[in-house]
Design goal:
- It is a single chain.
- With 197 residues, the protein is mostly helical.
- It is 71% helix and 7% strand.
- The chain has 9 helices and 4 strands, in the order ββαββαααααααα.
- The strands form 2 sheets. The chain has a two-stranded antiparallel sheet with strand order 1-2. Strands 3-4 form a two-stranded antiparallel sheet.
- Helix 4 runs antiparallel to helix 7.
- It starts with a strand and ends in an 11-residue tail after the last helix.
Length: 197
Amino acid sequence: MSKNNTLFGTFSVKRIAIDAVLIAMFFGLSLLSVEIGGIKLTFASLPTMICAMLFGPIDGFLVGFLGAFLEQMLKYGFTTTTLLWVLPPAIRGLFIGGCALLLKKHMSVDAILQNKRPYVYFVICVISGIIVSTLNTLVFYADAKIFHYYEYHMIFGVFWIRIASGVISSLLMAIVALPVVAALKRANFIPNKKARV
């Protein structure tokens, strides 16, 4: 299998292809999102979580960043705040991938499925949901100030609801991600040395 050496390590063709499929899945899931009063209900970050668990923080960041960038470009076009809106999903990938790398003993799929401290995995996913919800609120605030549509109740009045929905969706995505990552591992989609799970 052909490999390309980059600043971020060795990327096999299979790994790049999996990243591309996950970016496309992110975009597809983002189209199924529901937005109610400044709160977005979505499973778009599921591919980011899967990628972060499979390959680590760099791939997780790229899938979150490029998936959200596609969503922003096709829904709103490039604006002053486009790069701000793509950061929260990218940071989710970076955070989960970094934790998977640092805590491999507790966050490997084998450890989680064998009930060896699975709460570590779920706590990391919940923390990522809180981080993303908080960052989205700050980006929403910046966007509202720049484009002059700021209303306190629309941005900060629903902050705790936004946090709660982020936590719940992160838990649901974490539950769905486990069997997907386990299946990809069984199907040998994860290179032994480069796998983070």
